[in-house]
Every structure is written in structure tokens, then in C-alpha cells.
Amino acid sequence: MFKRLAVCAAAAMMLCSCGSSEKHQGSVFAMDTYMSLTAYGSSAEEGIKKASEKLNELDKLWSATESGSEIFAVNSSEGKPVSVSDETASLISFAKEMSSQTGGAFDITVYPIVEAWGFTTGEHSVPSEERLNELLEVVGSDKITVSGSEITLPTGSKLDLGAVAKGRAGDICADLMKECGVTSAVLDLGGNIRTLGTKPDGSKWKIGLRDPFSEGIYATLDVGETNIVTSGAYERFFEQDGKTYHHIIDPNTGRPAESGIASATVIGSDGRLCDALSTSLFVLGAKGAEQLYRSRHDFDYILVTDSGEVIMSEGVSGLITFEPGFGEKVSVVK
Amino acid sequence: MIRSQKFWVAVALLVIIGSAVWSYLTLRFWDSGSTVNIISDGKVLYTIDLSKEPDREITVEYEGRKNIITIKSGRIRVTYADCPDHYCISQGWGEEGSLLPIICLPNRLVIEPADSQLDGVAR
Amino acid sequence: MNTKKLTYMSLLTAMALIIFVIELQIPPLFPIPGAKLGLANIVTVFAVYTLRPAESAMILTARILLGTLIAGSPISLIMSLSGGFLCLAGMLLLCRVIDKQHIWVCSVLGAVLHNLGQTAAAMLVMGTASVLVYLPFLMLTGCAAGLFTGLCAQYSVRALGGRFK
User: What is the ipTM of this complex?
Assistant: First the structure.
């Protein structure tokens, strides 16, 4: 009798200890956004601490506005070569490469135009046609020269790593956490999601995709270790004379991209690629996205058009669950 | 067949203790999140995030019989039911973290925590 | 089955129904869907220990069907049938190994089987597994109720039982 009771008690204790892959959370304000880090297990606290420190460090390195940053130094170099860290140099060359691969739909030198629209300060205004044409002269990744770890940028041109920094930071933090022994974590870097491993119980992460037309989500993705980055017009925008202007500028026109896309999500193993592509696909539109996807096949994507249609690549169809009301008009790109 | 009466008494005691421990563990480790599904006749009619939903009333009908569900400051309960037993009303408020399923058997209504707890939202 | 037996069984069924109706007046003790004292089970347990298996089944069937006519719905009928008959089947087996001094044991185990049958039926009818959450609480209250009804039946059997076996 007492033996039985003991066995029963032991079973109960095991049940209790099952719940001990404890959840730890931390948050950082960096790269102009709120970042929340969630990790599970005994190394979680240390991992979060190291990742938070790293995020602050990267923020200081890549900020376009803080005077101590490497990017600030490049932007105010007046054409003289600036020596930067290897990490920064390789991120800039990556961005330059992405610019040529996307036919200029992605460009980190578009910063002066973003400034002119007031998206950096919040003092929004529609720039005049002349001003835009003037600024388009200094835009273009061909203006950037990278040799080793030296960056040269002509006067007037300015860089902003905003469209790749968070993606790269996610991968760096994930690697740091792995070194600490973390096997299960979700990093939400201002809406860029970087997952590490699986949930503590081995199941997949459930990541929602923001509905571009309302506050909620339009679908969830069940994923293992990956990056999920979404770009949408809803993130930052302003209205003037009854017209809405959003913050994703087409580097070829200097105006907010009008490609019929409301939100673009890219999923893949390379964070900076996902980050860069989510912006690129938003600018390129459905056709351009399809072409780019067929030429590379090293990422997956989901587009929501202005009319609510969903276009997604083959690899997504097994991961996605639509919320009620969505997923009626879906096409799959192979 | 075991004819020892002591054995069967022990089995009964074990079942009683077992269900007590199980009940305790359920209460102790129950964690419901803030999203609920409202299910009528086996179909999910609404999925609601209580932490974001404005205060409102939802009427659900099944074969002409009604339940009125009230959502108020992040909590949810059944406030009216034209079923005989009114168990669903006596179950009271449910809120994030501790919401057990609210069930109205005669009207085949279930308000249950949705397991779609998200780990993050890409935006 | 002679007239005397038939009358006796009818009497038991009528008693079960009366107890059932009286219990309807008692407000729910716990806010757990499906949890109740189940006082009418006193008669079922009594029948299991004093009558033949088929006769117990007839009394239970009559009580459930008539009870549903008085206060019930198609859904409550499904719950009562699935719980009631799993409980009856279990007790009919257990009464062969559990003697009349331990009827409460048989009744407690029967009550738990009732809860299992009920919950399984509820999962099917409601189309969701979330009703399982209530199973431990149902079992706990079921054990208490089963203990009570079992002891009632045990003393009844001691006082009147054995006459018709």
C-alpha cells in the first residue's frame, strides 16, 4: 500500500519537474525599437544578458544618428576613407551586393531621401520634385567603395543599415546564446523574429504574421530555427492632403513604393538576407518577387497585396495556418 | 480474480488520492494565455484575445436556444443561458492565466483557451 | 420474472425517479459541469447487490429514459447513458469480487467509471478535448458522491437486501 503511494508521489514529482524548463525574458531598447528576448532552460538568463549587451554594442556601432558610430563616421567622412570593424564592412558589402541583385530595389544609400520625407525625425513632409531629383543623384550603392575594412563614401551620400542591421543582429545574438548553451529561444527584434532551436518540449514555434489592415494577425507559421522578417506600409506612415505616405522608399523613384503590396514577409536561415529581402520584395511587387525567388530559391516569402490576396512561395504552404477571413485567395509560387 | 477486500479498498483509496493529486496539479500548472475560442456545436465561431478585445456581448444560438457571453475588462463569462441547469453561468468569470473551459452542455457551447499562444509576431 | 419481482423492480425504479427529481431541486454544489451527487445511484448500487444483472440494467434504463422525459435533453440523455452504463457494467463485475461489507468501494469505482464515460461522451458531443480538463475534478467529486451513495446502499442492503437474489 505504502509502496504504491510512494510510486504515485514520485510520478507527481516528475510531472512537476517537467515544467522546469523555465522561461526567461529580457528586453532592450536598441536600433530605434523595442526588442524582447525570450529563452528557456538553465542557461537562458546568461544568454539573454550577453545578447542584450551585444545588441547595445551593435546599436552603437551601426546607428546612423549617434555621433560615435561607425556609420556616422562614414556618413560624415566627406569622401575620405574610413576604417571600420570587419562586421560592419562585411554587412556593408552584403548590402551593396543585395542592391545589385535586386536591381536597386534595395539600397542602403537611400537614407538622405528617407530624411527628406521626415521619417527619421517624425517631422513629415512631402519633398518637392526638384529636391527629390537632387537627392536621387547621391543615392546608389555604386557610390560605396569597400576595400578590406575601409569604406569610402562621397560627400552628400549617406548610409543607413536599418534594413539589414536587425536581421544580422538576430543571427549574432542567436550564435551568442548557443555558445552559452541555450537551445530554445525566440528573439523579437522590433518585429524581426529570430528563433533558436525548438520549444522546450520539442514542438515548433508559433509565430503570428501581422495583418496589414488591422491590429491582429492574418496567419501563424509553425517553424523551427529560422528568421522571419516582415515589412509593411503600416509600420510608419503619415498623411498629407488626404494621401498616405509610408516609409518604404523605392530608391529608383525616391517616393514611397507603390507596388500593390501591403506586407512582405521573408523566411530563411540568413537574417540579413531576410531583412534585406523583405524590404526588396515590398518595393519589387508580386512579379519582381517571383522572379527573384526563382533565380535564388534560398528563401521563402509571403506577400499580402493591397486587395488582401496572399501570394506565397512553395516552402511556406506547409507551415502556414490562416486566421478566419484570410487565405481565401492564395496563390503558391513554385 | 482478486478476492482480497483489502486490495479493492486500496484501489479505491488510490483512485481518490490520485484524482486529488491530479486536480491539484491541474490547478497548480494551469496556464491558459489570453486567447479563447468560442465553440458552438463543435465549430469555432470566434477566436478572441481577451487582452485586446473591447468590452462587448456575443450572442450564440444553437437550435434556437441562446447563450449570451460577456467580455469585460479582459474577462469573459456567460451571463445568460436558456438551458435548464445554468452551469455555464455559475462557472463565473474566466481570465488570462486561469481560464478553465466554460461549458454549456445542453446548448453545445464551449469557451476554451486557445492553444494558439504565439511565441512572437513578425511585423 | 413473477409479478412480485416486477412490482418490486417498479417500486425501485419509482424510488430512483423520485430521488432524481428531488435532486434536481438542489442547486449545483460545484461549478463543475457534470458534477452532481447522483443520489439516484443509491438504487442502482442497491439493485446490483440484490438483483440479477439484467434486472439492474432494466431499472437503470427505465430510470434514465423516464428521467430524461422529466428533465433532460437529447444531450443529457447521451451523457447519462454513456456514464450510467459504463458505471453499471463496472459495478456488475466488481460486485462479484467485492462483498456486501464493502459496497462503498464498488460504488466509488463505479462513480469514477461514470465520470470517464461522461467525459468521453462530452468530448464527442462537444467536439473538443478541452472538457478533459474537468476530469480530475469530476473524479474527485465523483469519489465523494460515490462514497456517500455507496454507504447509503450498503446500509440499505444490510437492512433489506438479499430477499430477491
Answer: 0.85
